[in-house]
Input
Amino acid sequence: MSSTVAPQVYGGDEVGAIVLDPGSYRTSCGFAGDEFPRVTAPSYVSYDPSVESMEIDLKTSSYSSFKRRNNYHYGESIYLPRANYKIKPIIKDSVIEDWDSSIEYFDYFFKELYLKDEDISDLPLLLTEPIWNSKKNKIKSMEIFLEYFKVPAFYLVKTPTCCSFASGRANSLVVDLGHDNCSVTPVIDGMCLTKNTMMTHYSGKLMSNCIDNFFERDHQIDIVPQYLVKNKQIMNQSLVRNVNEEISDKIKREDIRRINGKTELKKIFKEIKETIVKIRNIDPSNNNLSTNNTSTYSFSNETIYYEFPNGLNVELSEEQRFQLGDVLFNPGEYVRKMRNERMGKKKRNDANSTSGGDREGVSEESNEKESDGGDVEMKTKEETVVSVPGITQLAQTVLQSIDVDIRPQLFHNVIVTGSVSLVPGLTERLHQELTTLNPGMKLRMHSMGNFYERSYQSWIGGSILAGLGTFHQLWVSRQEYEEVGPDRLILERFR
Output
């Protein structure tokens, strides 16, 4: 008896497509099939609020007649000092917030890719989205790309799914450490289990705020951005109080220093996270895992120097570097400290206002810094440190919520991704703590060793998916969008 094998059905040949991966700190864009994105840019816009700008009407305007506003700047040019300009995020928590600016932002990427109007109308577009993306944002994204940019086909794909496929695994537990948030998502057969996903805001931004407090508040070091330094002078930390910085005449204006200074500090903090911060390892001789007790960890007395843009060299011991990294695994201590400081500051301000004190001395910069403190907001006084989960507690909670039959598959395929995961020792610490909490499970972690692969893993996964011929049948065409409508598409295709 002869047996025949049914022929494999493919959606079509490999197709070219645009892959767009919005992030809370940087956004990546490129072509499907490429190994890395061709263009990356900060997810911020620099604009002049004093100049009135017309909002873009998607129903009456078209991309062929589109002209970018002169008082809005994107890409690396946002770091150029400009008088009266402000910088605001376009994307927050990996979700697009400023849709008017996002149209010009996407146009910036298309221009950087040397795409003309007719090229965009011939190339499908794949857009990544986080688990917590709202229905309203999904409809808005389809409206912009299918109606305004008039791409022939469009698809929304979850970021953890892209990370899982970039690692070559259909089943995985994706631990994504981004700038605004930290998320843990189980992926089964390429589908994200949204009900089991957990997310907190204790990630890169929180660590940046911790670094800021470490230098400025605890050690009274005034961090001088690069563009304010006219002459660089090598000096030790003991001479910091005698520093007389020279500022170029072109940028002496206070508004330029205030607005651009805050943005430039983020670049310094990012460099410190990549070069200085370390994660301490668990002492193997101690079986009692305690995230609040540093005595269970081992460290040496190795010191390192960090040089600021003005030439100031600061010595940091290994324990100090460990303290900066501990905020990811034990954010409760830092959150409690910040809450106490804010409560004390509020009491002082209330006392000053009651006694008729002058509040004009409080600068706008300090208010902005407080609001940008890693989104640390404690809603009630009764909240304790235990209620603030770190990376390990987050991953452990998600793993325990998964069905016991598929739990071993996730333990065997834990993917750690995101720029913050590049902090030395983070993957090893997470592996040790999860192993201690689950002694009977075989844990295996996967993290790409290359810097670019780890930082752009979600884009790489989207590039792989969009370049497959078998993915062709999943595209939502413009004709289908017009016939079916966005509401039904979200229920059937983008749930």
